Amino acid sequence: xxxxxxxxxxxxxxxxxxxxxxxxxxxxxxxxxxxxxxxxxxxxxxxxxxxxxxxxxxxxxxxxxxxxxxxxxxxxxxxxxxxxxxxxxxxxxxxxxxxxxxxxxxxxxxxxxxxxxxxxxxxxxxxxxxxxxxxxxxxxxxxxxxxxxxxxxxxxxxxxxxxxxxxxxxxxxxxxxxxxxxxxxxxxxxxxxxxxxxxxxxxxxxxxxxxxxxxxxxxxxxxxxxxxxxxxxxxxxxxxxxxxxxxxxxxxxxxxxxxxxxxxxxxxxxxxxxxxxxxxxxxxxxxxxxxxxxxxxxxxxxxxxxxxxxxxxxxxxxxxxxxxxxxxxxxxxxxxxxxxxxxxxxxxxxxxxxxxxxxxxxxxxxxxxxxxxxxxxxxxxxxxxxxxxxxxxxxxxxxxxxxxxxxxxxxxxxxxxxxxxxxxxxxxxxxxxxxxxxxxxxxxxxxxxxxxxxxxxxxxxxxxxxxxxxxxxxxxxxxxxxxxxxxxxxxxxxxxxxxxxxxxxxxxxxxxxxxxxxxxxxxxxxxxxxxxxxxxxxxxxxxxxxxxxxxxxxxxxxxxxxxxxxxxxxxxxxxxxxxxxxxxxxxxxxxxxxxxxxxxxxxxxxxxxxxxxxxxxxxxxxxxxxxxxxxxxxxxxxxxxxxxxxxxxxxxxxxxxxxxxxxxxxxxxxxxxxxxxxxxxxxxxxxxxxxxxxxxxxxxxxxxxxxxxxxxxxxxxxxxxxxxxxxxxxxxxxxxxxxxxxxxxxxxxxxxxxxx
Length: 756
What we know:
EC number: 2.7.13.3
CATH architecture of the largest domain: 2-Layer Sandwich
Catalytic activity: ATP + protein L-histidine = ADP + protein N-phospho-L-histidine
Protein name: histidine kinase
Number of helices: 18
GO biological process, one term: regulation of DNA-templated transcription
CATH topology of the largest domain: Heat Shock Protein 90
Number of domains: 4
Family: In the N-terminal section; belongs to the phytochrome family.
Shape: rod-shaped
CATH class of the largest domain: Alpha Beta
Strand content: 15-25%
Helix content: 25-40%
């Protein structure tokens, strides 16, 4: 039978250091021995140091049945222990092997049962002290609120229980760089609290082992690894020691600890949400071993931390989270109009920054950008969003270091970190944080964590404090801040959807009104074409027919009267056709509105109507009129029609007077569910009308009097209404029968909102 050792002697190099097979070192530490049993209870693996603990050599036991080497009673005890539900994970088996007491830890590696035996510890009487200290710790733990306070308490409690010279709570960041988050140590030792260590100090395969095996013990840094021997019956035969207590340590790690002056260590994994959150790292500056009971007590300290991480982090963030929640509640409760003007209210609300503790925010809607606080320029915002849309597929994106994603972006301290949310294909909201320059104290230069020489790789031997200045990044966004931003981004999106639906509803309502009015106009036009236009045509036809039949006998003066009547009928037809043409032209006007001085319009109108004004002896009194958004030629037609209407319906009992008044300065005027900026009022002392006809007089071809009393087509005030609709304004009339009429017109504030 050939026997060989399985020691891994491969040299660690730069190309394989991250893949060093530390789970199969082929050796163990010296404070115990190991044997491996195959499914038939044959001893397939054994360490060379078994003879240091019992009167056997490894060559004597390899290939033999366990019962032959250690007796059937020992085998029965081990079988009974293995078959008990998970007990072996708590306390090791106490067993007599060849008249010596051992504490044996047992685990399974593939199909091999691995037995690791250590001499029974004599200080079991100290368990009462450990129990008392644990009870005290739990009591004190309930008095802490923050995670940092809890970790400090665990460091102190672990040191009391284990007796190590230094106990550190080591916390990892997202890249597995470590920070000494809490510490308790001998007074004569230099503290490591607050120091940072690079991720290379604990390579990936070591982190994987820390997750598999939550307790790691090195009793003596100066130990000489004990080789494991096996029967040479397979090629590349090995033994996975991931769960081993005695497993030998990577030479690089041992050298690292020696460079720190450490003599012994205990490491307990802190696992949170299936991820290595941190470690309890215990250092002693001479040899040190602890009993399995104290190991368990120390392991419980780590579980105290991991069970409380979520709660304590919540407590740490609770105050700010409550402020964020309150700001979000206030923000979402704002009463906002269903128009884009509401974005002015949103962007200036202080709660918009408070919900995620940002320094600035921007909302881009189509081609318009609203900003508040410390933000990039509009041009930078456009460039930034274009890059995000090109490179980031998600609709949400958050980072505290924008330069990592877009190094070609111009570096700006005003927006080192952002939270971005797409609202739709052309809209988004972004919160900004400025650069926060920070200083990190590393335990040695992180760039020199590994040193290479002719013999391979070595850990750094200098742990002097090395300061690093961090730029181009902001404070990290907390998850509750990101959640609050996401929540409100959805609210803004919903609000924009409601605005769009409201605008569509208004559009359809307006179109419906226009369609209704157009149908009414068509009915009126149809009526005028079958009645008003046919009446003068019938008269012309009747008169001319009579003249033709009586041509030889009709007197000359009768011919003259008949021709006058024909001329009047033709004139009436011409006026009707001209007014209809004016009406349709106004309806199709689509020119851009512009500022119009109504004083100039009134002056030009009075000049044009000079003959009618003189003939009527009317007095026109006018105040200073404002500048409004309109079309000049339409305003002249509007003023002309209103004044002409007052002249037409002047009272025969008094001289006509027309007074024109107006708003002095722009003011928001609510009228008919719309907002206007200016009004102009025309009042006369004419015959007036009954108020019940205030809407009727603006309908096309509508007359309150018969044509014999007052001439005209009935289109004049309908033209006025159409003109005001075209410029986005409004018109209303107030009449008092026998006293006069007031015509009031309203003008819009913004031409973009005025066009129908």
